[in-house]
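Quick one, tokens below. Sequence please?
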């Protein structure tokens, strides 16, 4: 995945929530795995809406999100700080949820 090689991201629920609360670093988008626990999903959605950060629900499990990112472990929550050479933000903006 180009994002993992050339961009800057935050991985994991705690890191993403902390960054959203502090607004540092500036998060451009958040991606959640489809199987993220509901309580964690609600918290991320709340802060993303509050800060007007685009949010995408990845249409597969955290295992698959980890594989797509090029990691051999689960990733339930991912924040994009800098997209690098990827075009991920265009995809996120097109598929942003509006609940």
């Amino acid at each position: 995945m180009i994002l993992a090689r050339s961009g800057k991201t935050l991985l994991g629920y705690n890191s993403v929530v902390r960054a959203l609360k502090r607004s540092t670093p500036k998060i451009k988008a958040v991606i959640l795995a489809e199987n993220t626990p509901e309580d964690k999903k609600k918290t991320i959605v709340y802060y993303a809406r509050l800060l007007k950060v685009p949010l995408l629900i990845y249409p597969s499990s955290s295992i698959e999100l980890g594989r797509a990112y090029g990691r051999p472990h689960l990733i339930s929550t991912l924040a994009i700080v800098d997209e690098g050479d990827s075009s991920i933000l265009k995809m996120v903006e097109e598929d942003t949820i509006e609940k």
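Residues 2-95 form a domain with the 60s Ribosomal Protein L30; Chain: A; fold (CATH 3.30.1330.30). The chain is about 45% helix and 20% strand.
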